[in-house]
Write a structure and sequence with these properties.
The complex is a heterodimer of chains A (141) and B (147).
Chain A (H helix, E strand, L loop, with lengths): L3 H14 L3 H15 L17 H19 L4 H4 L1 H11 L4 H18 L5 H18 L5
Helix pairs in contact in A: 1-3, 1-7, 2-3, 2-6, 6-7
Chain B lengths: L5 H12 L3 H15 L16 H6 L1 H19 L4 H4 L1 H10 L5 H18 L5 H19 L4
Helix pairs in contact in B: 1-8, 2-4, 2-7, 7-8
Classes of the chains: A mainly alpha (141), B mainly alpha (147).
Chain lengths: 141, 147
């Protein structure tokens, strides 16, 4: 459960990161590919080498979706409805991988925000990303 | 047996030689207790863990964080035999401390995040993957003697 304070914190952080969405997103994806090579199997149709335009645009897409969800966390199921359908019927990414990307995203945030990524911010962010992943997987079965 | 390339050995050795144990140890344990509050179950003798502020200023938490981080030194010095190196500690955590081995991964994730925060962009995807490989081997060794 996210408190009001946590929701505000999460909203504020993602608002700040929106201008560097491509950079953060690409960084998180690269970390995930390096630590969990199995995740690369979902991207055989893209060039996922560092700094590739595919990687940057895909990273940007992901971060912007996460940022959009953060605008009104209580409406996550509504906001993510189209992405739910996409992931369930088209992409069919095994939901275990959402955890891997979430962890990679947390590391990216730690690197980018340094000391600002306090234990409290980390806890809130972890909760939000878990909720996001759970909603994303809702239409799978 | 786990294979380590020269590159991986040097990455890991570099991370640890530049680590301030007295800073990172406490930070990692604090983070674990805050982000995964159920881990507090093992520290009821530590006094005030009521909120993040209390946890981050608790001297027992800090001391224990330093102890745990130094525990990783054993793996650092015995990278080719981490499993045997932690056999005794594994028995301790299982039979005396009764720690659910899933918690080892939680702490190792928090340590990764603290190190990432310290190193910033120097904590590249490659460095992260190597560090996580090292921690995963330690975590596995610590869980080995649970029956």
């Amino acid at each position: 459960m996210l408190s009001k304070k946590e929701k505000d914190l999460i909203k504020e952080i993602w608002e700040r990161l929106t201008p560097v969405a491509a950079e953060i997103g690409a960084d998180a994806l690269l970390r995930m590919f390096a630590s969990y090579p199995g995740t690369k199997t979902y991207f055989s149709h893209l060039d996922i080498s560092p700094n590739s335009s595919h990687l940057l645009s895909h990273g940007k897409k992901i971060v912007l979706a996460i940022a959009e969800g953060a605008q009104d966390i209580s409406q996550l199921t509504v906001t993510l409805a189209p992405l739910q359908t996409l992931h369930a019927y088209q992409l069919r990414v095994d939901p275990k991988n959402f955890k891997l990307l979430s962890h990679s995203m947390l590391v990216s945030l730690a690197c980018y925000l340094g000391d600002e990524f306090t234990p409290v911010a980390h806890a809130a962010m972890d909760k939000y990303l878990s909720a996001f992943a759970a909603v994303l997987a809702e239409k799978y079965r | 047996m786990v294979e380590w390339s020269e590159n991986e050995r040097s990455i890991i050795s570099n991370i640890f030689s530049n680590l301030d144990y007295n800073d990172v140890g406490p930070k990692a344990l604090v983070r674990c207790l805050v982000v995964y509050p159920w881990t507090q179950r093992y520290f009821s003798s530590f006094g005030n863990l009521y909120n993040a502020e209390a946890i981050s200023t608790n001297p027992k938490v800090a001391a224990h964080g330093i102890k745990v981080l130094h525990g990783l030194d054993r793996a650092l010095k015995n990278m080719d035999n981490i499993k045997a190196t932690y056999a005794e500690l594994s028995v301790l955590h299982s039979e005396k401390l009764h720690v659910d081995p899933d918690n080892f991964k939680l702490l190792s994730d928090c340590l990764t995040i603290v190190v990432a925060g310290k190193l910033g962009s120097a904590f590249t995807p490659e460095v992260q993957a190597t560090f996580q490989k090292f921690l995963a081997v330690v975590v596995s060794a610590l869980g080995k003697q649970y029956h």
